[in-house]
Design brief:
Helix content is about 5%, strand content about 35%. It has about 475 residues and is mainly beta. The chain has one domain: YVTN repeat-like/Quinoprotein amine dehydrogenase (Methylamine Dehydrogenase, Chain H, 7 Propeller). The protein has a 4-stranded antiparallel sheet. Strands 2-3-4-5 form a 4-stranded antiparallel sheet, with no helix packed on it. Strands 6-7-8-9 form a 4-stranded antiparallel sheet, with no helix packed on it. A hairpin with a 4-residue loop joins strand 11 and strand 12.
Length: about 475
């Protein structure tokens, strides 16, 4: 189970935990990556059950990295051109992978295109992944989760936003669908993007479904063929969004981008991927942070605390991206990624008062997609292209408190004749030649491309004028 892997990883590092008293004086040593390795198109990263094998989604394929020595990350295998034998192949837009035991799930495309599929690999030999099954779909797959018997896939298509559940114990076959509109048909009157099924996490028979502005849903999937609602954390009533513009989907108090519990399912973390898109409005903008909930009674989630995003002088889509992205709760730690805002490590033994242990950022070099607990370190993947020049890579960080010397400022500004801009610079570490892969964009796949083509003004026009589909 995922619970066992995460608990084991944290048990090995328990001696590093700081006492609650006097934590404000933490940061005992300079804090910096132990190593990094370039991976073109890197997006999501997950850690294998051994704690040292890292599987990285890479837009046009995936990579396997050996992190047994965190000071010397080594690529063991790389697979590109998946399903290239299909008439409409190869598979692209691969933003997610998940591992369970000796099986790896690879899914895509995240947003649109053909083919669309779940691929299953045997990774008993991590240096030689062997494809064992393909389940093609008629919908793109942005994210997934894998258990010993089922794969859970986000399924967003023309008129429905759903979670698809696929039995993978033999030849893959779909056994169930569930979406917010099944519980409340009023969501069918809301522009589809605003209630997209974005991500899913499954633990001990409960699925935690991040359904964008439709909120987070806890589903009983002890019988995967018959999912049933346990509870719902709701930023909006669907009536609030019936006439909402597309831009609402990138603003607070929605969206619910990712949700995951801690090891014993007593705490749930939910984040928002949000920017200041319409500063002239009186709605709350961004960047989005992470909220912790008490779910000891899963039928009645109770908010405990909120972790805000790193401050930036320009929190808009054309500025410095510091909104929350993927994270992991493991033991007494919360491992977090914030795009150009870097990675942050939190002590959450008291989830009502999370305490920051370490923060590292180099916004001109790295834009972090995820952070995950590993053996003797934590790992984080950097996404290439936000902004142009950031590298696709996997980093390994110390799993203890620390302080980054000479950390670049995210809030310093310089004023020119025409604009005020954020100063967030760093010396970029030379790497092998890298080029962002086409279609590799965050969120739902439009923002980075627009930023590159038209800048902030173009993004603002798109958010204002894009048809709600």
């Amino acid at each position: 189970m995922e619970f066992s892997r995460r608990a084991a990883l944290r048990a090995g590092a328990a001696a590093l935990a700081l006492p609650l008293a006097g934590r404000a004086s933490a940061h005992p040593e300079p804090y910096e990556p132990r190593d990094s390795v370039a991976i073109e198109g890197a997006t999501e990263a997950v850690v294998g059950p051994d704690g040292t094998t890292i599987f990285v989604a890479a837009t046009t394929g995936f990579a396997v990295v050996d992190a047994s020595d965190p000071t010397d990350l080594t690529v063991l295998a790389e697979r590109r051109g998946l399903l290239a034998d299909r008439e409409d192949g190869p598979l692209t837009g691969i933003h997610d992978v998940k591992v369970h035991g000796t099986r790896l799930a690879v899914v895509g495309p995240a947003n649109s295109g053909r083919p669309s599929a779940l691929l299953l690999y045997d990774v008993r030999d991590p240096a030689n992944p062997v494809r064992e099954a393909v389940h093609e779909t008629d919908y793109p797959i942005h994210n997934c989760f894998l258990t010993d018997s089922h794969a859970y896939l986000t399924a967003n298509h023309s008129d429905r936003r759903e979670l698809a559940i696929v039995d993978v114990s033999g030849t893959p076959r779909e056994v169930a669908r569930w979406g917010a509109a099944d519980e409340n048909p009023a969501w069918l009157d809301v522009p589809g993007f605003l209630w997209s099924c974005h991500d899913v996490y499954v633990q001990d028979g409960v699925a935690y479904v991040a359904h964008w502005d439709a909120g987070t849903w806890l589903l009983d999937v002890s019988d995967p063929a018959s999912p049933a609602v346990i509870s719902h954390i709701a930023p909006y009533d669907p009536a609030d969004l019936a006439d909402a513009p597309t831009s609402r989907g990138y603003e607070l108090p929605g969206n619910h981008h990712y949700a995951a519990p801690n090891d014993d399912a007593s705490v749930l973390a939910v984040n928002s991927e949000a920017w200041e898109t319409t500063p002239e409005d009186d709605r709350t903008g961004g960047p989005g942070g992470i909220t912790l909930y008490d779910i000891t009674d899963p039928a009645n989630p109770r908010e405990l605390s909120h972790i805000p995003a790193p401050e930036t002088a320009n929190p808009g889509l054309g500025g410095t991206w510091t909104t929350s992205h993927n994270f992991e709760l493991a033991g007494d730690r919360l491992y977090t990624s914030w795009y150009q805002g870097g990675v942050k490590l939190f002590d959450v033994r008291d989830p009502a008062e999370p305490f920051e242990l370490a923060w590292w950022r180099q916004p001109a070099e790295a834009a972090f997609w995820t952070a995950r607990a590993a053996a003797d370190c934590f790992v984080a993947s950097s996404y290439a292209g936000v902004p142009a020049g950031t590298r696709g890579a996997l980093y390994a960080f110390p799993d203890h408190a620390g302080y980054q010397p000479d950390a670049p400022s995210l809030t310093a500004t310089t004023t020119t004749a025409n604009a005020t801009t954020t100063t967030a610079t760093a010396t970029r570490t030379p790497t092998t030649t890298e080029s962002p892969s086409s279609g590799s964009t965050p969120g739902f796949g439009v923002l980075a491309a627009l930023l590159g083509a038209a800048g902030a003004a173009g993004v603002a026009r798109w958010l204002r004028d894009e048809p709600n589909s």
